Request: fold
Amino acid sequence: MNPAEPPPPAGRRNRIVLPATCSVHQAPRGRTTVAVSKLPDGRIEFDPHLSGACVFAVEEDELIKVLLRMGWR
Ligand SMILES: [Zn+2]
Reply:
């Protein structure tokens, strides 16, 4: 985080907004957003477009398996 930025509001400290691409809505690369949050139960939640229309949560262990399978080190 940039030290000049104010801290995120309470309840949003485990939330990161990533630049992304949506093939459905045809937005240019990196021109849409996905909010990624860590839930109190440890799951990682994804909110594409920050709309709340389709929010899904993944077990942290499963997400780590994906990263390892994709060659993340
Ligand atoms: Zn979309």
Observations:
- Residues 15-69 form one domain.
- The chain has one domain: 15-69.
- The beta strands are 15-20, 32-38, 44-48, 56-58.
- The pocket of zinc ion is lined by residues 22, 24-25, 32, 49 (CB under 6 Å).
